[in-house]
UniProtKB/TrEMBL annotation:
Subcellular location: Cytoplasm
Record GO terms (molecular function): 3-methyl-2-oxobutanoate hydroxymethyltransferase activity; magnesium ion binding
TM helices/strands, residue ranges: none
One Pfam family cited in the UniProt record for this chain: Pantoate_transf
Binding site for 3-methyl-2-oxobutanoate: 44-45, 82, 112
Lineage of source species: Bacteria, Bacillati, Cyanobacteriota, Cyanophyceae, Nostocales
Protein name as it appears in the record: 3-methyl-2-oxobutanoate hydroxymethyltransferase
EC id: 2.1.2.11
GO cellular component: cytoplasm
Source organism of this protein record: Scytonema millei VB511283
Length: 256
């Protein structure tokens, strides 16, 4: 049985932490699911796997292609598809069409959209009315890199209030969860207390209801990772070593 968006809200009430990671392919989806990850985000950080500098170039076609692969590997975790830049901002109709494809074609169980602007909140409400579970994402929103950069958000009293208001508005619109990215821990803690729906933090301290990391950061596969990421294993080194060992054995007539 797959985990549902509703279940995650219950887990918050029970004080059970939510473990989330990103996946962009079948192998990763299968491994994360087997290791007991609760929520798998097919993030538009897919940009990293595709060699893009930012998340902006990622298309809905690319997201769906990769989400389908993840879908084939996952049995238990809730799969959330990250709607990429300009696949939902144009109109509610565009968002509905994109989210519909995420569920109908890719087999995702929910979508995530960035921002807490009133227009975004309206989009969330309309998607939820159509039966599509939506995850919000506020704080540092990488699709707005040309406006915000990649720096921490919510540092002035005005910004703190803005983020609190956005979180409340997204909850009211029916979002089942909200990603809080790169904001001060105490602000994340206050938002977490204020909301009934779970907050999933990334660079937002330990008081969130769950945590998410980009899997390539956790595994030491990214060329660079944000300051708040933790590298649990350096697979870049392990891969380089394995490939060098193989190359040496082939060249020295030792393998096969
Ligand atoms: O695209 C992504 O991987 C994300 C997470 C970092 C939350 O949005
Ligand atoms: Na993203």
């Amino acid at each position: 049985m797959s985990i549902t968006a509703r279940q995650l809200i219950q887990w918050k009430q029970q004080g059970r932490k939510i473990v989330a990671l990103t996946a962009w392919d079948y192998i990763t989806g299968r491994l994360l699911d087997a290791a007991g990850v609760d929520l798998i985000l097919v993030g538009d950080t897919l940009a990293i796997a595709l060699g893009y500098e930012t998340t902006l170039p990622v298309t809905l076609e690319e997201m769906i292609h990769h989400a389908k692969a993840v879908r084939r590997g996952v049995k238990r975790a809730l799969i959330v598809l990250d709607l990429p830049f300009l696949s939902y901002q144009e109109s509610v109709q565009q968002a509905m069409h994109s989210a519909g494809r995420a569920l109908k074609e890719a087999g995702a169980q929910a979508v995530k959209i960035e921002g807490g602007h009133p227009a975004t909140v309206e989009t969330v409400a309309r998607l939820v009315q159509a039966g599509i579970p939506v995850m919000g994402h506020i704080g540092l929103t990488p699709q707005s890199i040309h406006q915000l950069g990649l720096k921490q958000q919510g540092k002035t009293p005005t910004d703190e209030q803005k983020l609190m208001d956005e979180a409340i508005a997204l909850e009211k619109a029916g979002a089942f969860s909200i990603v809080l990215e790169h904001i001060p821990s105490d602000l994340a803690a206050r938002i977490t207390q204020e909301l009934t729906i779970p907050t999933i933090g990334i660079g937002a301290g330990s008081e969130c209801d769950g945590q998410v990391l980009v899997t390539s950061d956790l595994l030491g596969l990214s060329e660079r990772q944000p300051p708040f990421a933790k590298v649990y294993v350096n697979l870049s080194e392990a891969i380089a070593q394995a490939v060098q060992d193989y190359a040496a054995e082939v060249r020295e007539h030792k393998f096969p």
